[in-house]
Please model this.
Amino acid sequence: MTSRQANQPNPFSSSEIRPRLERLRQAMREQRLDALLVSSVPSVRYLSGFTGDSSVALVTRTGQYLLTDFRFEEEAAITAPLFRCLVRRLGMMELVEKTARRLRLRRLGFEEQVLTAAELRDLGGRLGRSRLVPTAGVVERLRMIKSPAEIAVLRRAAAAAERGLLLARRAIRPGATEAAVAAELRRCLVARCGAQDQAFETIIAEGPRGSLPHARPTDRKVRRGSLVLVDWGARVGFYHSDLTRVLALGKAPPLYRKLVKLVRQAQLAAMEIIRPGVPLADVDRAARAVIERAGYGPRFGHALGHGIGLQVHEAPRLWARAAEKAEPGMVFTVEPGIYLPGKFGIRIEDDVLVTATGMEVLSSLPHDERLAGEP
Ligand code: ZN
Ligand code: ZN
Model:
């Protein structure tokens, strides 16, 4: 570790973990749970700092246990020092059962969206007098509100992604394939921008493929006059960024200019109203209204945005049915789009932090064709 890294706030230090466990126990008390079995990998990481996988956390009212196997025993001791490590010899659910019995847990919560049907069946048959209580989104709700240390890492993830695109944009030139551009961007992120990896498989979508919101890079070639949709991000210290720009190679067609402007207006309309207390459904509505008024409502078929953190997609979701209100410390994307099948797609995506009084955009790249590799 260099001295520069040592000075960075660490979102997995014990002083970060302790208040998380405290907030979790508060939520457990509200649901009258004696314990919560956490099996989602990012949630286990959030609560304990543990960097491995194939393990579960069991948090009781007074203690916390990391149930793992031989491969991760040492890693658990190093990265999750506040947790007591229990190493399984047989099945994981067998160890959960034994531990629940030993601790005399009555109401044991589990994550209904994470535990598999087989694990649940296994556990249900074994638990005897403990009662299994389904829960949804308990840790995910805690994860929605980022601490200053987490925000610092998210800033670095956004900055790394931006620098990565600026370095790689020269590769976006006539004759280059989508896959080659994606590979160069990934290389720049890792080798030159301090990212551990790309945040997800980069989307490089030339021309009409831009209307597929989740296009994978192919051998299709970028041509002069092409529009190229780039949706990419960086992973820094287990946290992610997620950005989208549409670059024009050469002179951009008039419809592109018109729609980029419109999508950017929609994004700004959403950003303008973001502050603590505003329902996230209203934020979605603000952007959607701009696109609807211009007659493109049906061509914007996805949610306005999603939380980012230990996962690229996490709570909250910004859509019409969102129940949450904006709260200081939330970090989410704002990404309106317009997709014209057979022609192209426009999406503009930035990462936003809700502050005490409003919001701050963590990303700062220009939003139009000025970004393109070759004018
Ligand atoms: Zn994205
Ligand atoms: Zn996104």
About this structure: The mean pLDDT is 93. The chain has eleven helices and 19 strands.
